[in-house]
Design brief:
The chain is an alpha/beta fold. The chain has 9 helices and 8 strands. Strands 1-2-4-3-5-6-7-8 form an 8-stranded mixed sheet, sandwiched between helices. Strand 7, helix 7 and strand 8 form a beta-alpha-beta unit. It starts with 5 loop residues before the first strand and ends with a helix. 42% of the residues are buried.
Length: 253
């Protein structure tokens, strides 16, 4: 999909289609392209919006969950959005959880896939590590069941990012912020319908994390995808879209 990135003030985003809003949030090393298949499928019937989270640009002292949620809140208010289905992968799920708790009047439904917020494996090691392309390639591939899902373009993009010391400092600060912020005591207050779509082979937020989210969030539904790791919407987009379509249809408000 050719990505048409729009820019308004401090915000960069994708805005495709018309109808009820699906707002998608990428993860720490995610990109807008992670959601290509979701955008292509759902823009026929929904307005699909993806704000680019300022992970690499935000002031270092603000680099954390609080800063990202503030950015999202400012974007939603600027665009006048409401009655949203909010969807997040990995760190994006964590941001979505906090935003939903702080703005229950704005969110009608919540979708989490490989979300942090309870436990995460920090990509299996001391990530990021600068200078070694093979190391970065190995770590990126670690997030997928089939390593071939990690295209050379995607690995190159992550490698270029990790070559920057300021960007690495922000990444580490945000990752530590996420690891410190356990939401087990808060998420039982979420009342909207919640869909949990998890890779059965997720190594970052293992299946036990999905079961714990399902146990703690009252109105939640858990669906697993086999032979799938941390980004189901990238590894098994067709299965992911079928599950999401079914949820959107059965919880239509």
């Amino acid at each position: 999909m050719e990505i048409n990135i729009k820019e308004e003030g401090d915000y960069k985003f994708i805005d495709e289609g018309e109808g009820k809003v699906l707002l998608l949030l990428h993860g720490l090393f995610g990109a807008l392209s992670n959601w290509d298949y979701v955008v292509n499928h759902f823009k026929k019937n929904y307005r699909v919006i993806i704000p680019l989270l300022p992970i690499y640009e935000m002031p270092l002292r603000q680099a954390g969950l609080e800063g990202l949620v503030k950015h999202l809140s400012g974007f939603v208010n600027k665009k006048g959005l409401s009655e949203m289905t909010l969807m997040g992968n990995s760190l994006g799920g964590h941001v979505a959880l906090i935003y939903t708790l702080e703005n229950p009047d704005k969110v009608n439904r919540l979708v989490l896939t490989g979300s942090s917020g309870l436990f995460e494996n920090a990509m299996g090691g001391s990530y990021p590590k600068r200078g070694s392309y093979e190391y970065i390639k190995e770590r990126v591939e670690y997030t997928f069941y089939d390593p071939k899902t990690a295209t050379k373009e995607y690995v190159d993009e992550v490698f270029e990012t990790t070559k920057s010391i300021p960007k690495c400092m922000r990444i580490v600060a945000i990752a530590k912020s996420a690891q410190r912020h356990n939401m087990a005591q808060e998420i039982s207050r979420i009342k909207v319908p919640v869909l949990l779509v998890w890779g059965l082979n997720d190594t970052i937020t293992p299946p036990m994390v999905a079961h714990e989210f399902n146990r703690l969030i009252p109105n939640s539904t858990l669906r697993f995808i086999d032979k799938c790791c941390h980004a189901p919407m990238m590894e098994h987009p067709e299965k992911f879209n079928v599950i999401l379509e079914e949820f959107l249809t059965t919880t239509n408000t």
